[in-house]
Amino acid sequence: MSTSAQVDQLRARARHLRSLSGKIGASHALSVHGLAGPDTWVGPTPQSCYDALLAIRRQLQAQQQSLNGTARSFDRRADELESQPPAPRMVS
Q1: 84 burial class (0-12, 13-18, 19+ CB within 10 angstroms)?
Q2: pLDDT tens per residue, range 7-63
Q3: CA pair distance 47, 65, nearest whole angstrom
């Protein structure tokens, strides 16, 4: 695979990961914990529900950070490949 194709592939992967991260960031799942609590929950474990929702929120945020970190590493690798001098061509 040529360097140019590798760079294009890395940049496309980085864009896709950022897109997924953005979808997580825009998700209502990150704010659903605000709908839980003793005023909205009837039962013996409103705090358990709230705690579980916060745990899910933390997991989503961690995944979002991981996606962004991987996207950054793809971009760094693409930058490295672009900065390399072109390989000499074999003449036959």
Answers
A1: exposed
A2: 999 999 999 999 999 999 999 888 888 887 667 666 667 778 888 889 999 999 999
A3: 27
Residue 19's pLDDT is 96
Cα distances (Å, whole numbers) of residue 11 to 25, 63, 75: 21, 20, 6
Question: Is the sign of the CA dihedral 7, 9, 14, 18 positive or negative?
Answer: positive
DSSP class per residue in the chain: --HHHHHHHHHHHHHHHHHHHHHHHH-GGGTGGGG-STTT--SS-HHHHHHHHHHHHHHHHHHHHHHHHHHHHHHHHHHHHHHSPPPPPPP-
Q: Using alpha carbons, select from 66, 67, 76 the residue that is nearest to residue 10.
A: 76
pLDDT at residue number 35: 80
Q: Token pair of 23, please? A: 């979808």
Q: Which amino acid is at 31?
A: S
